[in-house]
Amino acid sequence: MQAKVRYRILFLTLLPILLTLVSLVFITIYWNVIYTGNQLFMKVKADLVVANSSLLQVQKQQQYQLASISESWDFQHAFRILKNSEQQPNPDAVNTINILLLQQQQALGLDFLRLISVADAAGDPDLRGMLHQSQKKAFSGLMVLPAKRLERINANLVKQAQITIIPTPHAQQPSQKLETRGLLSRTLVPIADLSGNVFWYLDGGILFNHNTVIVDHIRDLVYGKGTLPERSIGTVTVFLDKIRISTNVLMEPFPKNTQKPNRALGTLVSDNVYQQVLVEGQTWINRAFVLNDWYISGYLPLLDVHGKRIGMVYAGFSESPFLHNYLLNIIELGTILVFVLLISGLLVYRGANSLLQPIEYIHQVVTAVQSGRNIRIGKLGLNRDNELTKLAEQFDSMLDQLQRRNAQIQAAAEQLEIKVEQRTRSLQDKTEELERNVALLHATRQQLVTNEKLTALGELIAGIAHEINNPTAVILGNMELLKYELGDNVAVVEEEIELVIQQVGRITTIIRSLLQYSRPGEFNAPITSQPVTPIVEEMLLLARHSIEQQEVKLIKEFTATGSVEVNRPQLLQVLINLMVNAAHAIENKGRIWLRTYDWLEDGKTIGVKIEVEDEGMGITKDDLSRIFDPFYTTRKDGTGLGLSLSYGIIKRLGGTIEVNSTVGKGTIFTIGLYSKAKDDQQLGPYEGLHFGDKQS
Q: With respect to CATH, is domain 469-692 assigned 3.30.565.10?
């Protein structure tokens, strides 16, 4: 029995420690799986973007190189001699140009470089599609050519393009044994005379087949030293269709009897990647089986000059080193857990041993009393203030009382039995009534929950539909501007193209903000301390087309120096709403003032205030008290959620919104943000919200 008590005390004492440590292990495992997995996918996505940008940079560099050749003195001198030939081209000029182009081809690492007339270019089906893009400036792009067309450019390209196709696990069996097509990065540069007429072109480029310089350069750029764990391999590949034509993925680490790596040229991509990237045109960011191992991979489709998907660019790194490190961490954590348990068990056993003997003696007395013997615990040999000594005294006293009252209990047993029976019947009746009430309460509660969910769902759907309008308007505005500006000079609208991409990302941020408005407890956006002025300037860039369409004059007064704790995308959303509303409030031409200044209280800076003032039509008193209500709007094309969502964002930061308006003169919205964000749960439903008339 003593052993049982000892083990029970040890078990009960160690149980909380065991549960805590085991929970810590599982929480750590879960966190590592989720966080590490997301980080790996984010990294390979960034690597893929860099790899694709590097390929685009190759085309731009190639375009710049050919333009530099066409503008060089040697080329222009030989070209003038050739152009001035009346009937037949001057053999010396032709020979000079050919030698010059060959030297430049070798110096720049190009696979071909030639001078071609407009007539020959128009007759070439491969160049015909590029001519309308290169009337006045250079144009570059990708194209796939069969062997016969490669031979028309340069006979050496035919042999270089040939790649033996190798059957690959997780890929369909190839229908042919040899790939003879070539993937070219080709540039066409017009050569104009003094009158601006174009009669000749420089045609040059590189062949990706068997080309290792580009992929090795991108690999060294993306997966430099220290970017991956030990034994992890970073690789980059260019695919023609689903065939690896340029790669640093190896068939085996060190081939026998050679110093050159045996690259996996001619191997195939897995079927699921091929389906998603080349057939469906989507980006692949996930695990993928690359040749003979699993890699964290990213694939992006490559488009030719006609916008047709012709191949892929790949970037990725091996998964096994990350799994090895993860398992090693789990083993280390488990070892620490066992060690802590052993030490804790030893300490608990030694501390509890002094209690075991008195507890064992008490247990023996209790067992004897249960068997009918009339004995007492008596002295335990412990200090009088010890809890077990007091327990023994109380137990002996209880036994004496039980013995005296045993007779009374026996006498009252019959009467008690009758009362218990009566009470039982009464209790059964009340229990049945309580069960009915509980059932009714449960049904009522279920109905309330259902109604609440339906209401929240309706608000959420309406909010999402509304807030998508703002970034969509920005996207459409920039696309219209892009169409208007397009012509011969594409570079003029590069900034607007980047802005379109940023607004697509902002749509996702707005949807997350809607979910946060509907269920703020479940979506706590991270906040950081940052200056306000850069955020305001970024907002002006995003909303400038809405302002320009209304023909308003923007007056900026940025004097704020302090920083505030905010979530940048959410604050951008609020400011864009206010600026768009201010622009729409001005019917004709007018002014908008945008101000930032430090928020002072008792001579100390407690935050920053942002003001948006317009010379619009103003807001009536009746409308002023309802503008922050969901779904309330005075605009025909509005949904009434812009200001409601903005107020929710500022409220959750503990900030304030003040509105002052005078009908016919304009409106001022003032946002107050604290240096340290306050707990929004301490605020009432409309605390921090102030209305008033605009001062004249």
A: yes
